[in-house]
Amino acid sequence: MNMPLQLILLSIPSVIYIAVQKRREKKWGEVLGQIGWKRSKLKYYLWSIGVVILVATLGWLALQLVPQDVLQDPNVSISKYADMVPSVATFLLVWSREAIYVALGEEIFFRGFLGGWLT
Question: At 11, which helix (H) or strand (E)?
Answer without folding.
Answer: helix 5-23
